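User: Could you check the structure of this?
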Amino acid sequence: MDDVAGCRVICPDVKTLYEFRDAIHRARFDHVLKSDKDKYGYIKAPKPDGYRGIHDVYEYNVGSEEGQHLRGLRIELQYRTEVQNAWATTNEIIAHITEGASEPKYHRGDRRYLNLMALASEVLARSFEGCPGPLGELDNGEVVELYERLERELNLRLKLTGLGVALKSDPRGFGSEFILFREGAQLELLGFETQVAALEKLFELENARPNADVVYVPRSTTDEIRSAYKNYYDDARDFLSWTSEGIEYLRSLT
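Assistant: Sure, the predicted structure tokens are below.
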């Protein structure tokens, strides 16, 4: 990992993603791009496991007196399309539905999940984004056949359909600063009026529950949080819809 802080930008399509990234690169600020422009370009050259997106690593620089202690902080800026993010979200959800026995994100457990997700990435890349996938050597018929064979073995679609985590608490309309907290199957969304109060709770939870997933979400609505943090909610609906549509499209080409 290069970063100690991170930010993710989710764009509707690849064209918008590249345009927004180019605008960031042209922006006049003192933060310094530390990574080569194409070093973490996983759209033109996807990872073998199917991950697609682009990462930039910046050095954070500010002139204010209050921010001096943050100068030099490394920040990773991630760019993904909605399709790429749906894939990445589902890749994380697999760890939940297998109770940690298989984690394709970390290449652990049953490798059939890893292979199926690589094939799903190929389906999505070809069907929706006109970009290379991780398995470009396969023709469309082979992609469909291999995907459907593994799907029959693993029943991933059935495991993901209807999956979702219910909130223990949902402070809708309360403040605009939030903490999203997940430990096992328990998910809580805690609302706060001020950033200070939210960050105090963040540090408290991180110290008390080191094995939990805790994230601070500033200036958001509960609907925006549910959309951006689908992995916390075990929400694979977009992935299921797009892969089904993509398989039918590739089948029509064979």
